[in-house]
């Protein structure tokens, strides 16, 4: 698919091979360019597969136990949804995959270098530590930055005693 991982993989493969990248959806609608407005289109089958979790007795009661999972069905995938979310999986997940597949190349300490190839933080911030790894500010394909006005949220957090 034409989501974050698919586009990066296709780009890397295209350096050596001819690659066709297929995406189930089309172009993101213009509203998806506005940060945090993904709630407007979150239930649109044109840009979301509308998957839900298996029913859980004690979770997601407002959804009858089947919690919606936002999955971008458009070029850019979920990264085009405007939700402003990027998250690495927990190191234990990768280590479990390594154990289950008997393939140490899935271990977190082996793949963290690939996260470092694509992540960066733009702007003034404290370096973030994840395990033994620190995100560094360098130009890479995935760029985090602060939205305009975030300084007011940070100021409010400081005034409330949070370490920001």
UniProtKB/TrEMBL annotation:
Highest taxon of the lineage: Eukaryota
MF-aspect GO terms: flavin adenine dinucleotide binding; oxidoreductase activity, acting on CH-OH group of donors
Keyword presence, Flavoprotein: yes
Keywords for the protein's UniProt record, in alphabetical order: FAD, Flavoprotein
Residues covered by the Glucose-methanol-choline oxidoreductase N-terminal domain: 2-163
Pfam families found in the cross-reference section: GMC_oxred_N (PF00732)
Cofactor: FAD
Name of the molecule in the record: Glucose-methanol-choline oxidoreductase N-terminal domain-containing protein
